[in-house]
Amino acid sequence: MDGNKKKGIAIQIFVYLMAIAVAIGVGYYFRESHVLLHVLYADVAGTLVIFLFSRIFHNSSLYDPYWSVAPAVIVAYYLYTSQYEDSNRLRNILTFILVQWWSWRLTFNFLRGWQGIHQQDWRYDDLQQQSGKLFPFVELFGIQLFPTFMVFAGCLPLYWIYFYGGDLGIWDAIACVITFGAIFIEWLADRQLFQFIRKKKEKGSTLTSGLWAYSRHPNYFGEMMFWWGLFLFGLAACPQQWYYFVAGGIIITCLFFFISVPLIDKRMLRRRNNYQEVMDNISGIVPWLPKKRF
């Protein structure tokens, strides 16, 4: 690990410790409000801290790990505060382990590929060029607060799991299989991509083996599965109130289908020689048998 990367990771750790500290303080200040509200206030406060440091370091990618860090903090808080509630402890512990595993793995994967504070996601570079002087507003509301609200919505099932959860049932088993499978798919897809990037020799080549032979974005498929797995745990805990926490899975699914994947495919068409052929033969997100083997 070179010096720039070590420095960047050290900055990330410091910034996130500050964000967590401020979030805890804000959450404590609003502790008399409804649990969901003071978690939301704390979540927004943490995001604002990340935004402040993003402006200081001129790098919006400081926010990127927030997607995986925030749920780990939220689920830990729910586990702690629900210890005296009449909820199913086994389901609580199981979802806590799964969310923490997902969080640490995804955060590690980001840090493994991040080269330091000088590296910013290409999508943010494009937005910065397009928005000019308005970029700070785009960064705050589009790059940071909007994803924060999406992740908060995705975590809504955790509230019903930890504060309303009844007996274990078949939906818990299904949710466990889907959530575990989602994390495994993401891990395997990211591992295959990391190895391909390290070994590839031909410039502009595309990974079309392993999971990537059945989906152009298997890591995104695993990510969507994870959030729907949490929804199913919520459904198992409190089926009569499912409509309160289904929005997160829908919003995140729409994000990948209608924003993330089209943006990446458009970029890859410009940068990869055979990407149109890949698009014509390999499913976009949901794994499916390819029309031809590469």
Protein described:
The chain has two domains: 1-99 and 130-164, no CATH class; 169-294, no CATH class. Helix 1 runs antiparallel to helix 2 (35-57), helix 2 (35-57) runs antiparallel to helix 6 (135-154) and helix 3 (66-81) packs antiparallel against helix 4 (89-113). The protein is mainly α and 294 residues long. It has eleven helices and no strands. It is globular, with a radius of gyration of 20 Å.
The shape is globular
Mean pLDDT: 93
Distance between the termini: 34 Å
Low-confidence stretches: none
Binned strand content: under 5%
Number of domains: 2
Structural class: mainly alpha
Radius of gyration: 20 Å
Number of strands: 0
Q: What is the N-to-C succession of helices and strands?
A: HHHHHHHHHHH
Helix residue percentage: over 70%
Largest sheet composition: none
Question: How many distinct helices?
Answer: 11
What are the main properties of this structure?
294 residues, 2 domains, 11 helices
Which SSEs are present, and which pair or pack?
Blueprint: H1 3-29, H2 35-57, H3 66-81, H4 89-113, H5 122-131, H6 135-154, H7 156-164, H8 170-199, H9 218-237, H10 247-271, H11 275-281
Helix pairs in contact: 1-2, 2-6, 3-4, 3-6, 4-8, 5-6, 6-10, 7-9, 8-9, 9-10
Brief digest:
This protein has 11 helices and no strands. By secondary structure, it is an all-alpha fold.
